[in-house]
């Protein structure tokens, strides 16, 4: 694994060959794209497809009779329990993925020649807390009578969103600052999502669930501070 960006033979920029770049720009102006349509047609097509498409999955009907009763009760009161279950499912998927991401990061940092035990320890603590959060969410889903093992539509979407992050963390060539950058994206989104989830749970009349999430939010605040400071320290060390 490379530890920092180094100067090397990178030919991607136009400055590498001004003569060829000029020729390339002339060609781009001379030969039009050989596929039919233009920007407007693409816009129309996308709008049409969006209107025609079905939704990404559905929230499953609660498996238990108790859950069914709770859903009916909330529905009668004009609430949408499926929305909360969908968002809870999203958080569960995200936290589970968080555990895997930190596992990959621990392997990367721990395997370095001059591994920093304090950094490895901090990453292990975050990983353990992400796991704890996953269990908290699973418990909340069960308390609503829903099934925490079901993949909800929002869980599906965050899984797709996280694909790039997983690729960055599991690529053997990525270095520590690059992976910390990916983890910063994860923690920023994580933080905002917990904040919203607490608000949603309260608004849906599930105060007990909202209260059980406060501890997770406090820990997520710490995750964000830790990842930000690791990143800053690492980069400043290399720059100075
Ligand atoms: Fe998290
Ligand atoms: Fe986190």
TrEMBL record:
This is Ferritin-like domain-containing protein. The lineage of its organism: Bacteria, Pseudomonadati, Pseudomonadota, Gammaproteobacteria, Pseudomonadales. InterPro entries: Ferritin-like, Ferritin-like_SF, Ferritin_DPS_dom. It comes from Stutzerimonas tarimensis. It comes from the Bacteria. CDD domains: Ferritin_like. Coiled coil: none annotated. Residues 120-231 form the Ferritin/DPS domain.
